[in-house]
Amino acid sequence: MCGIIGYCGPRIAAPILVEGLKRLEYRGYDSAGIAVAQEGRLNVVKRAGKISNLRSHVPPEMPGIIGIGHTRWATHGEVTDGNAHPHTDRGGKVAIVHNGIIENYQSLKDRLESEGVTFVSETDSEVIAHLIASFYQGDLEQAVKETVGLLKGTYGIVAMHADEPDRLVGARNGSPLVLGVGEDEMFLASDVTAIIAHTRQVIYLEDGEVVSVSHRDYRTTDLRNNHIEKQIDHIGWELEEIEKAGFTHFMEKEIHEQPESIRRATKGRIDLEYATGHLGGLNLTNRELLDINRVKILAAGTSYHAGLVAAYVLEALARIPTTAELASELRYRNPIVERNSLYFAISQSGETADTLYAMREVQRKGGRVLGICNVVGSTIARESDGGVYIHSGPEIAVASTKAFTSQLTAFYLFALIMGRMRDMSHEQGLRFAQDLDSVPGHIETILGTTGKIQDLAKRYARFDNFLFLGRGINYPVALEAALKLKEVSYIHAEGYSAAEIKHGPIALINEETPSFFIVPDDGLRGKVINNMKEVKARQGPVIALAVEGDDEVASIADDTLFVPHTSELMYPFLMTVPTQLFAYYCALERECNVDQPRNLAKSVTVE
Ligand code: F6R
Prior knowledge:
Oligomer: single chain
Bound molecules: fructose -6-phosphate
Number of domains: 3
Strand order of the largest sheet: 3-2-4-1-10-9-11-14
Distance between the termini: 12 Å
Helix content: 25-40%
Number of strands: 26
């Protein structure tokens, strides 16, 4: 989704801004721009399309040591140069970049137009520049505060004024904004990846906060000018982690990182002596955990699919009724929040608006929500009542892969803790912990078979429709496999419980609709085999993802991929990885933009 960068310091700003925008590319965008101040004037360059297009229009010697930049993901108004940010006021003195949506922009625009202001874009954001200009009396910070006092909706804003050549002002409400504190220079950004090359010292702004920045210092206040003391956090990861490290795409790299990312998610969190898990951030005593009699998981997209698997595991291990629900739906159906229910918000980015608002709604009703997040310091991580970081490292490809398996890992550990407090014996707990520990090794084995998966993708990428079918704990894996294929290769794909096809989807089966069956050696294998035969009987091409040595499945399917044998609950990890690779290679075959699929954004900060 939209990205923001601001720079204030002794260096020439334009290259820093463009490089920061390049690092924000992964979030998804359709246009980009920068504004730089120099000798009482603003120079603005903005273009629809790629950062490379913007870069080619930025003059090589563009002067100015203070500036702001933006990558836009269109919400109001088409993808045009004029709708790209930064936006300026009519005097050309104020420039702003904005993430989020201003819900009352139309009434503000009407008012400004009646005062003679002419709008030059179709965006909601432009009102901000005009309002700041209208309030400006030599103090940008004050003008920004008066402006945001009028705004309804969500925003992360950075503003500058040509007459204040050492001042950036940032304000946040619902869209992330972080201050990077460098040596004699300051940065503002929507995402730390934009500034990690320059500083690791960051301050996360909260909703309702305003930061006023010069190259030497910063001041954080609320809208009533009360000073707010902020803590500086240190970013723990390295620049290399947001680079491709020899892989062609981030998606490929991140799929291959999974053995390591899962190991990181379990590191120090398995207690072999007591055959249980250890998750320090839950902020719940064992007695409080024992009182929980229902678990509800809120999430979106891939994280929701992780939640569906998690619900299955928690019920199986701890016998606690658990459901996963789309956060976007939960929020608007007046959820019933019970005293002994525990909620989880699962989110890679920790910024997904649907999940964040659902979490706040549950908290407002008195519910306790734990976060399972990847991005340290993200809004969900900070606002939740405790939780677990999955430590996947930055996930740059828009399609989520390694975060999914690490989300599972975190939840499996929670299920182990809860299971050991209830039904599971020491021996069962130990076996589960050992099985979880063996998952990364199995994934390494699967990653050794990428040639076969690529070959399969070469032959199947021409189809326009796919069904992914699984049962039990692997039904959400089928949903996730279908999501992955459609989002990166634009092949229409549906995930179903294999048992469901006879209730409707079987009508789709013909020679042109392949079915991809997930067939572990669990209690439902026989049933899934019957479903495979039903598809074969109707001339549907069948791909099977089965367990090494399963000749029966291989003899029915047209093509079979194998994973190593493991215990029943661990198959979601092993079955997911080949489907990620299959989606990746299909996207390559179809020459799609794998890391930045059309219309998608990495972190969806609008509803
Ligand atoms: C799919 C994908 C999305 C996200 C969803 C939630 O590959 O990445 O479906 O899973 O937008 O994002 P987070 O986990 O950041 O809340």
